[in-house]
Specification:
Elements lengths: L2 H10 L7 E5 L5 H8 L3 E6 L2 H11 L15 E4 L15 E8 L5 H12 L7 E7 L6 H13 L23 H8 L3 E9 L2 E3 L2 H9 L5 H6 L2 H12 L9 E3 L2 E8 L2
Parallel strand pairs: 1-2, 1-4, 2-3, 4-5
Antiparallel strand pairs: 5-9, 6-9, 7-8
Length: 259
């Protein structure tokens, strides 16, 4: 769903053979694959081992692939950036944290990971942070609010979830800038990208959203049938006459620089 975001950032930063990329929270590796097909040397870390296994499959070159094929130099590690060594060709010159702020634990934890990652990067390298756009321009935000309410009915929308939870909260206007400041980075531009969430049918939409981890906290305290029922009701306004589910969203990215 975030492919337009990846494409916009890679085009703006001219990602190519000269790029040595470290991705924080690389997940199943799609953003890394897209960078690798542009010739970048890619590395990624993630705390989710099952998704890393998918990334390894995705980024493993096929026998018939050329030496410069996507994934030929991919390096993946389970854990944080401290598990990653400096690339053979030199220090990293691009760090990405595409996973939207507000969906990946506490800002303090992400700031700490960014500090560790930038210690492996060249001075002045771009660091890209991703986040949700304005609440009123993100249809999926209203759907994810169901997860927050079911996980903790007492948690208001303007409060940050406790550290370590996989809950969701709406993004603040300056979230990315504040995160960059905590990590000791210098803001150097930003942008907005349309990233609609589209699914073939209602079951696909429910599977897709439940797989994000943002409903895990709700599933721990509420009956799974109730979670699915309320999720289905929240998605209903976005189901089209042909059965497809379409939710327009706007995502925002911030480019910061290492000092």
């Amino acid at each position: 769903m975030l492919v337009p975001l990846y494409e916009a950032v890679y085009q703006r930063l001219d990602v190519g053979p000269h790029t040595r990329l470290l991705a924080l929270g690389c997940g199943s590796g799609l953003a890394l694959l897209m960078a690798a097909t542009r010739g970048a040397q890619v590395s990624g870390v993630d705390m989710d081992e099952p998704r890393l296994r998918l990334a390894r499959e995705r980024l493993t070159p096929q026998p018939e692939a050329s030496a410069t094929a996507a994934g030929s130099a991919a390096r993946l590690a389970h854990g944080g950036p401290e598990r990653m060594d400096t690339p053979e060709r030199g220090r990293f010159n691009l760090v990405t944290a595409f996973h939207p702020v507000g969906c990946a634990g506490s800002a303090e934890g992400l700031a700490s990971s960014l500090q560790k990652a930038t210690a492996l990067a060249e001075r002045g390298s771009p660091v890209v942070l991703g986040g949700w756009g304005p609440f009123e321009r993100c249809a999926t935000a209203g759907v994810l609010r169901v997860a927050q309410r079911l996980a903790d009915p007492s948690l208001s929308l303007d409060r940050t979830p406790p550290p370590g939870t996989s809950s969701w909260r709406p993004s603040g206007r300056d979230d990315l800038e504040e995160l960059a400041e905590r990590a000791g980075l210098r803001p150097d531009g930003s942008g907005r990208v349309a990233c609609p969430f589209g699914y073939a049918d209602m079951p696909s939409a429910m599977r897709g959203l439940l797989s994000t981890g943002m409903f895990d906290a709700a599933l721990e305290v509420a009956d799974p049938a109730q979670v699915e029922k309320e999720l289905s009701e929240a998605l209903h306004p976005y189901q089209r006459a042909d059965g497809t589910v379409w939710m327009p969203n706007v995502f925002r990215y911030l480019i910061a620089r290492t000092r």
